[in-house]
């Protein structure tokens, strides 16, 4: 038996669209499928503007650079997250302020307000963890009150909503990831979305090596990056977008199966008024989660500890942390369970039987 954490699940149209992309003559980061992919994301999320990129980390980097955030500036960021939420702050030589989560497992608005009051960061990067929405009513209100730009790391939460609005569309910028294990995978890729046309135009300019328009040679007044998505990978994205709602329904069904099989465990909650995509089913254990991790691994079943909070990472030991350590307790107790959309009920039952033996 081999069960992976969250393997990609093709829609069935990927090869057809890839062949069309090759036939069009466009392979490089430009072409009709790039345009179609951006339009599909705009249409689905309601975001006014979308820019297809090589990954979501590039999107966060472009957001910070476009907003003029640099050395000497502070940026509040979720501590309970993957390093990619924080790394672009360091690329810009700005200083991260690490914000703990609350009982929702998402950024704690009270801890955020403390940081906003004391430090006056120029921006806030909030992560929508494991496909669930953060408390966007509270966080957006705080950013407006203290004049901080709101950036959403919605890498894991494409299709999740808060108050019927798509995650990634509350802030001035949002990013989605299409890496290999996400709910929509192009093998590697991301999308920057935003509501300000001029800022998005600047982000696109920087994403294509900052080449000045209107001259027949390469003219540069500043430096940029090679961050755009290829037409071939965009073709995969177009195919995947066509089945996104189906994939979300499957993920949510898998989550319900786990709840039924393991009724005594605590699973990641869903905030009132929100609807997550349940990218990964995550739960807490009363016993050592590493023992369960090892038991699953011995049977060829992939699981993963919850994110180690950024404030516990050696890289971040000098950065200020705001919170009470909720994320530390979650990290010590939790695992991400296999959540690929190919899973059947019998697979979940097998996984849970192994877990119950260790409880």
Estimated share of beta-strand residues: 15-25%
CATH superfamily of the largest domain: Type I PLP-dependent aspartate aminotransferase-like (Major domain)
Q: Give me the Rg, rounded.
A: 20 Å
CATH topology of the largest domain: Aspartate Aminotransferase, domain 2
Tell me the number of helical segments per DSSP (H or I, 4 or more residues long). Answer: 12
Number of domains: 2
Helicity level, as a percent range? Answer: 25-40%
For the sheet with most strands, the description reads:
8 strands, mixed
* Beta strands, count: 15
If you average the pLDDT, what whole number results?
Answer: 97
- Global shape: globular
Strand-and-helix sequence, N→C?
Answer: HHEHEHEHEHEEEEEHHHEEEHEEHEH
Can you tell me the CATH architecture of the largest domain?
A: 3-Layer(aba) Sandwich
Class inferred from helices and paired strands: alpha/beta
Please, could you describe this protein's structure?
There is one protein chain. The chain has helices spanning 14-24, 32-45, 56-66, 87-91, 109-119, 136-146, 197-207, 231-241, 244-261, 289-298, 326-333, 345-358; strands at 49-53, 74-78, 95-99, 123-127, 149-153, 161-162, 165-166, 173-177, 190-194, 266-267, 274-275, 281-284, 304-305, 321-322, 334-337. The chain has 359 residues and is an alpha/beta fold. The strands form 3 sheets. Strands 1-9-8-5-4-2-3-14 form an 8-stranded mixed β-sheet, sandwiched between helices. The protein has a 4-stranded antiparallel β-sheet with strand order 10-12-15-13. A hairpin with a 2-residue loop joins strand 6 (161-162) and strand 7 (165-166). Helix 5 (109-119) packs parallel to helix 6 (136-146) and helix 10 crosses helix 12 (345-358).
């Amino acid at each position: 038996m081999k069960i992976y954490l969250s393997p990609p699940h093709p829609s069935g149209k990927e090869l057809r669209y890839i062949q069309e992309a090759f036939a069009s003559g466009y392979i490089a980061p430009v072409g009709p499928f790039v345009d179609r992919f951006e339009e599909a994301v705009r249409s689905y999320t309601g975001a006014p503007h979308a820019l297809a990129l090589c990954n979501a980390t590039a999107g966060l980097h472009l957001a910070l650079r476009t907003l003029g955030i640099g050395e000497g500036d502070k940026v509040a960021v979720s501590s309970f997250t993957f390093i990619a939420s924080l790394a672009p702050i360091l690329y810009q030589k700005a200083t991260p302020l690490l914000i703990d989560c609350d009982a929702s497992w998402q950024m704690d608005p009270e801890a955020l307000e403390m940081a906003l009051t004391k430090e006056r960061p120029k921006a806030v990067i909030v992560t929508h963890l494991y496909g669930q929405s953060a408390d966007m009513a509270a966080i957006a209100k705080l950013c407006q009150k203290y004049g901080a730009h709101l950036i959403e790391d919605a890498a894991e939460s494409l299709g999740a909503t808060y108050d019927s609005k798509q995650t990634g569309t509350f802030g001035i910028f949002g990013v989605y990831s299409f890496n290999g294990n996400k709910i929509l995978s192009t093998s590697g890729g991301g999308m920057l979305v935003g509501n300000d046309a001029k800022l998005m135009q600047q982000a696109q300019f920087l994403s294509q090596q900052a080449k000045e328009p209107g001259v027949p040679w390469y003219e540069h007044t500043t430096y940029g990056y090679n961050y755009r998505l290829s037409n071939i990978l965009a073709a995969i994205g177009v195919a995947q977008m066509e089945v996104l709602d189906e994939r979300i329904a499957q993920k949510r069904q898998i989550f319900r199966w786990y709840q039924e099989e393991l009724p005594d465990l605590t699973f990641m909650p869903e905030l009132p008024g929100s609807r997550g995509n349940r990218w990964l089913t995550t739960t807490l254990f009363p016993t050592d989660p590493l023992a369960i991790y090892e038991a699953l691994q011995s049977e060829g079943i992939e699981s993963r500890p919850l994110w180690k909070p950024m404030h516990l990472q050696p890289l971040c030991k000098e950065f200020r942390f705001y919170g009470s350590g909720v994320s530390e307790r979650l990290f010590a107790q939790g695992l991400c369970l296999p959540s690929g959309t190919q899973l059947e009920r019998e697979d979940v039952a097998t996984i849970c039987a192994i877990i119950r033996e260790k409880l």
